[in-house]
Design brief:
This protein is of the alpha/beta class. Helices cover about 35% and strands about 30% of the residues. Strand 8 (about 195-200) and strand 9 (about 200-205) form a beta hairpin. Helix 1 packs across helix 13. The longest helix has 19 residues, at about 340-360. The radius of gyration is 20 Å and the shape is globular. The termini are far apart. The structure holds NADPH dihydro-nicotinamide-adenine-dinucleotide phosphate. The site of NADPH dihydro-nicotinamide-adenine-dinucleotide phosphate has 33 residues, from helix 1.
Length: about 400
């Protein structure tokens, strides 16, 4: 059916590539392109021989001209941005210049400020519409599936959704005292930032990790979880009817937080450049270099993740509470695609979003967040492609 250019060759991209190859009917050809071509070649070597034709290329995705040249050469139907949030705008520019559809899993973040919001990418709406091409933003799990869950809840179970709590639990144990389960720089920037949530149309800011709750997660058990700022709050507040409050919680263990506190207190998480032996370095980037590579956690991680959303609202004048979630097993993911569940839960939805675009079901010119599309084919595909979901109409609520 189509041809995809996959940019990035890290933890998530590896899952995307595996899943595209499992779905060769849709992904007849893929090109894996990244800064370090040897990583693309290693992936190709692992998966070559199946029905999907794989090629590789070297590209610096910070460079629009290089991207345009690669897209013109390969002529993909879609560019899947599985590199880092810093590359979103350059890749979107290249897609505009070549009239190629675009998909990513995380919203743009300028390298010099740890601040992520959709404004930069939403500013492309008119240009994508005029070019007749589709951009699907944030098509991982959270953001991504959390938006699909929300659109599904709105479509089938609610007239108005007043409260959304997004709960992201990882009960995986990799055996290291401290490691992050996706790109350490992006992860640490996210969790050391101030928390925030939306209440009655306004952002309410909190200190980092200020709000803690304990939740008894299905299939995982009781976990400490903390309120974080998260990008889908911004789009869901606009796209879901009747919203009064949206919060995002993620679980962290005592051990993780203790290490993080120490690293933060000694300045290792800073993104301000410092001079070290005559060379300018950014402490957080140095820290990334000494921490375990998230891609190496796969074989060591045991346990499960549970990510889902609790909705409270009304239908036909009656109160409805609804919880929809996915439980994913780290070891099962590793057995299937050689990655842990965090990469898996991000990579599978990216493949599904691209598939729906290629099939024409999620194709509409402009720039869209996932909850702006029909959730039904996506929900069906989640069950088919490895992220089955469960629902409950009497969940434990978060106070
Ligand atoms: P990794 O660090 O493992 O991989 C990033 C990849 O991007 C690497 O292959 C890297 O190349 C490549 N890359 C970085 N800069 C460039 C560049 N300038 N040009 C070309 N390639 C580049 O990250 P992950 O796989 O863990 O994460 C990928 C994305 O997924 C991130 O944007 C992350 O925020 C997002 N994510 C989204 C989630 C969701 O649920 N929505 C959850 C988890 C992650 P090199 O090897 O040379 O460094």
């Amino acid at each position: 059916m189509g041809r995809a250019l996959i940019i990035g060759a890290g933890g998530v991209a590896s899952v995307v590539v595996h899943k595209c190859c499992q779905n060769a009917e849709v992904f007849e050809e893929i090109c894996i392109a990244s800064r370090t071509k040897s990583k693309c070649d290693a992936l190709k070597e692992k998966l070559d021989g199946g029905k999907t034709k794989i090629t590789t290329a070297k590209v610096d995705a910070d460079n629009v001209e290089e991207l345009i040249a690669l897209i013109n050469d390969y002529k993909p139907d879609i560019v899947m941005n599985i590199a880092l949030p810093y590359q979103d705008l350059t890749i979107m520019e290249a897609c505009l210049a070549t009239k190629t559809h675009y998909l990513d899993t995380a919203n743009y973040e300028p390298p010099e400020t740890a601040k992520f919001e959709y404004s930069w990418q939403w500013a492309y709406r008119k240009r994508f519409e005029e070019a007749g091409i589709t951009a699907i933003l944030g098509c991982g799990f959270d953001p991504g599936v959390t938006g699909v869950f929300s659109a599904y809840a709105q479509k089938h179970y609610f007239d108005e959704i007043h409260y959304i709590d997004i709960l992201d639990a990882n009960a995986g144990d990799h055996g290291y005292p401290f490691a992050t389960n996706f790109n350490p720089e992006i992860n640490i920037r996210e969790v050391t930032a101030k928390g925030s949530y939306i209440e009655n149309g306004d952002w309410v800011e909190t200190e980092p990790m200020e709000i803690k709750r304990i939740y008894n997660f299905p299939e995982i058990g009781e976990k400490d979880m903390y309120l974080l700022h998260h990008e889908e709050l911004e789009s869901l507040a606009l796209n879901i009817n009747g919203i009064k409050r949206i919060r995002f919680f993620m679980t962290f263990s005592e051990k993780y937080l203790t290490h993080l506190n120490v690293l933060q207190n000694v300045g290792m998480t800073s993104i301000e450049p410092i001079m070290y032996e005559g060379k300018e370095i950014i402490p957080l980037q140095f820290l990334k270099a000494v921490l375990p590579d998230p891609a190496s956690l796969g074989p060591r991680t045991k346990g499960k993740t549970n990510i889902g959303c609790i909705y409270q609202g009304i239908k036909d004048g009656k109160q409805v509470n609804y919880y929809v979630y996915n439980v994913c097993d780290h070891e099962a993911c590793y057995k299937e695609v050689g990655s842990q569940a965090i990469s898996y839960t991000t990579g599978v939805p990216a493949m599904i979003g691209a598939m729906l675009l290629l099939k024409g079901e999620w194709k509409k010119p402009g720039v869209y967040n996932v909850e702006e599309f029909n959730p039904d084919p996506f929900m069906e595909a989640l069950n088919k492609w490895g992220l089955p979901w469960k629902e409950s109409f009497s969940p434990e609520l978060v106070d």
